[in-house]
Amino acid sequence: MISALFATVSIFLILVLSEFLWRKAHVRGEFARKFVHIIAGCFIAFLPFWVSYGWIIILAVGFIFANLVNRYTEIFHAIHAITRKSWGDLLFGLSILAMAVWGPNKWLFAGAILQVALADGMAAVVGTHYAKKKYKVFDHYKSIIGTATYFVASFVIMVFIVRLGELTSILSNIELFFVASISLTILENLSGYGLDNLSLPLGFVVIVKLLGVI
Asked: Which DSSP category does 77 fall into?
């Protein structure tokens, strides 16, 4: 109970900090949204190590409700500080809920959430600020440098999760890291309108399970 309360307060403080920085004009636009996305997401990724999946389900429902309310009240501007159409804020909460209901190995939960919180977050920040060449996938645009950033970050996360979690696979580690990361990079490219916030965590677990990770 105390751990769940601490987790709730911590996430709330991250949102308050993001709003403070937004009002002081230190962070705006896509960077403001990804600031919350990366910090809160990295924190949430490791919740199963000290909070039960039951509590994470409750927190995820609250997170979805808070984001839904914020869409119409804009209490926290940084969460939805973009002009393009996106359901990412709600889908991120839904992905946390889905992962908690699924209840995989704790390290796989961490890896799944980090794929969208850290890898995708870094790709968005780098792609927004440094992209010179873009390409179109269906009706949305991606940058070469953003995609490359996602692949590298995804690869590093895979190494981190497999090594620290002492996970094994039917593939050698280098094959596992490459196949999983390139598959997720393709999935990230195909997912528009914030759908990657849901497809990447679920896709991560499905892919590593198909590759025999235990």
From this structure: G
**Tokens encoding 92:** 């991120």
pTM of the model: 0.88
At residue 103, the 3 state secondary structure works out as: coil
Question: What is the CA 13 to chain-centroid distance, rounded?
Answer: 19
Number of residues that make up the chain: 214
* Helices within the chain (DSSP H only): 2-23, 29-45, 53-73, 88-102, 106-114, 120-130, 144-164, 173-190, 196-210
More confident residue, 154 or 125: 154
Structural tokens at position 11: 């996430």
172-203: pLDDT as tens digits: 889 999 999 999 999 999 998 889 999 999 99
CA atoms of 62 and 11, how far apart (whole Å): 11
* C-alpha–C-alpha distance, residues 192 and 194, integer Å: 5
Is the predicted pLDDT of residue 27 greater than 70, yes or no? no
Q: How far apart are the first and last CA of the chain?
A: 30
DSSP classification of residue 116: I
Q: What is the DSSP letter of 142?
A: E
